[in-house]
Amino acid sequence: GAEALGRAWLAAGDTGKAREFVSLAMRQGAPSPAPSVLAAMARVHVAMDNFRAAGLLLRRAFAEPVCHEYAALADFLDASGELARWRDVAAEYGLPARGVHELQLAIFALHEKRGRVREALALIAAEPSLVSDADEFRAADGGVERVDCARVRRAAVKAGEFDDGVKLLERLVSLHSPDAAAEAETLQAAWAMRRGDEEGRLLHAVHAAELRPASWEFARHAAEIRLARNEASEARAVLGRFLAVSQSPSERESAFELWEKAGAAMAR
Fold first, then answer.
1. Over the stretch 100-156, which tens digit does the pLDDT of each residue have?
2. What is the DSSP string of 23-85?
3. What number of CA atoms fall less than 13 Å from residue 187's CA on the CB side?
């Protein structure tokens, strides 16, 4: 529809065409356009540095209880230089507790996208409740992608923020986040590899696989390190623990392929 075309043109950088199609979507939805259409028009105005109009449109969108346009709100706050005031803005918009939670998730994603990983990690450190368990699904998070310990770890690795990432994950361990310990070990393994500490890398990778034996990512990592060190028997031990608990056919197939590779190495 017109809204989708408007968003596509905006992504392509043509604000004129974007405004044309989103305006059509606004007219089609008159007198009460959907929150997504209002947010799309707010994004157009943000791209044109018309922050006053964007703010008014977003207030109108969030007047609807069904509105989940938190990514648009976070982008608006960032572009207008108001991101530090997000709590005040949440209060001004009358966001409920769940809405505040979703806005924080959107701000984390924004920092992550912009390469501001230190700020993203600081947000989680201030609000550890933003982190979900790896297997938890929160339908109430609407369109905002949840944050789990794996996402924290991957962001830290990508930006090279190992120290802050480890400290945060260790704090989450102390708060009994069930996935934090294994993710902290995996981050430590990546940090050790960056430093050229192969013994430390092995130690942390194996510990991560022991903490989460059903994780193919962790089992494969530890087994491949073992194989690279000509420790095929130990690699098979890692794979055996994984195969004893895994329920994923595709992951089990991959594990058996690595198992056979270790067996061939042992036969040489």
1. 999 999 999 999 999 999 999 999 999 999 998 765 544 444 567 889 999 999 999
2. HHHHHHTTTS--HHHHHHHHHHHHHTT-HHHHHHHHHHHHTSTT---HHHHHHHHHHTT-GGG
3. 28
